Amino acid sequence: MVDPHGDLGGHDCWIPLDSRAASTPDFVLTRTPDSSRFMNSTTESPSDAIATVRVIPGGPVCGSIRPPGSKSLTNRALLMAAFGRGTSQLEGALVSEDTHVMTDSLRKIGVEIESHDAGRTLVVTGVQSAPESDSPYDLYIANSGTTVRFLTAALSALGGNYVLSGVPRMHERPIGDLVDALSPVVDGRIEAVSEGGCPPVHIQTAGWAKHELSVAGSVSSQYLSGLMMAAPLASRRSNQPVTIRVVGELVSRPYVEMTADAMQVFGASVELQWPAAAQDDVLVQISGDYDAIGWSIEPDASAASYFWAAAAISGGDVTVNGLSRAATQGDVAFVDVLEMMGCQIEEGEDSIRVIATNLPGGQLRGVDVDMNAISDTVQTLAMVALFANSPTRVRGVAHNRFKETDRIGDLASELRKLGATIQEHDDGMTIHPLSEPAVSDESPVRLDTYHDHRMAMSFSLAGLRLGGIEIENPACTGKTYPNYWSDLEQLIGRAHHWTAE
């Protein structure tokens, strides 16, 4: 058995590597033990997956890697290019389930999108008016939160008749706050028809009739981002700026700042007015329209967190290329948490390196950290925290219960299968060091991913130190990172173990 708290200090690194597996035009990848096989996970439920995967423990993980393009930036850029004036070219786009459902939906309503370089380069010709149809456009958005929230806002402003629906879990994810924000301003009707204000969403409007609106920000920053990106479409009819007021707490502020930055790259004018006191409202004023541009999309910082964490967990040394602390994506701040835990961080002009070969005292430190701004990396941190020398308290992420799965309760349940002691809190969780693992090669444990890509990728990190971890439905990583498993194999220098069902 691998000692989960063995001294990691002083190990030499091995397997120097600059790894980036060739992307495939298919957007979801899984493999059987005897062959490589592609599978469209939008047609599969978690129980239908053809394999489980074990990541094999070994020595320190060392090397360099460039993750694929940012999902958050790709879907924002697609939306703005789709409704901009002229033809835009997007370089470094992510090829995944989430971006596929966005491009597919945009094509259905008449947006011309050409795909080159296996989908990593997209040429998008924008539309300026609503598509004409006697019946609603039926748009399938799988379990893509960005797609349903961004399109709900944008299509209500563009005008037209649409139904947005997805997988069963999507019909449990709240969108009522966004619909409530739009209902008073649309010229027509908009409704979330599932219990609790969840999709499917029915939209039939002639655009927005008003230019001042309010939205709650405590569940998802994507509501505000969607309204912000829709605002230039609403302004076309009246030449009036749009003012958005965020009532109450706003979660994940860096994603809103990312949206504002991207909108300004595309030519819109955005003024964010942050309150002096936390209890005061955020104001956003937007004017102008979207122009055609050429834009290079950064690698995905949320995906990068897994490779930085691999260095921390294994006592290794990993460089992620294509990102710096000046990146548009707030999740690059995950390295600051690793630094608090004892890792050394080195920043290059276009790279961030995490070094854990000489940890103080040979072990990671537990931390008490508010992760509201980087909530997509909570699962990543939870895996690192298992191998720290003291408990880790995660705060500020109550909204994580409403993502692809309950990323507090379900995460806690799976970690307990490994023998971990976990306390759930209203706003997060406490992860205690894993003193007596309940898993080994001789006593394997199967972990449920809940069809959540971040669950699967995070669980792979625990496998770097613990034998016997079987991860169900590995194909679910296709939502945002189809080549994750092959990229991880190349970085760690050893093959995973795949089992057929």
TrEMBL record:
GO terms for molecular function: 3-phosphoshikimate 1-carboxyvinyltransferase activity. InterPro entries: Enolpyruvate_Tfrase_dom, Enolpyruvate_Tfrase_sf, EPSP_synthase, EPSP_synthase_CS, RNA3'P_cycl/enolpyr_Trfase_a/b. Gene3D superfamilies: Enolpyruvate transferase domain. The keyword Aminoacyl-tRNA synthetase does not apply. It catalyses: 3-phosphoshikimate + phosphoenolpyruvate = 5-O-(1-carboxyvinyl)-3-phosphoshikimate + phosphate. Pathway: Metabolic intermediate biosynthesis; chorismate biosynthesis; chorismate from D-erythrose 4-phosphate and phosphoenolpyruvate: step 6/7. The active site is at residue 376. The keyword Amino-acid biosynthesis applies. Residues 58-488 form the Enolpyruvate transferase domain. Monomer. This is 3-phosphoshikimate 1-carboxyvinyltransferase. It comes from Rhodopirellula baltica (strain DSM 10527 / NCIMB 13988 / SH1). The gene is aroA.
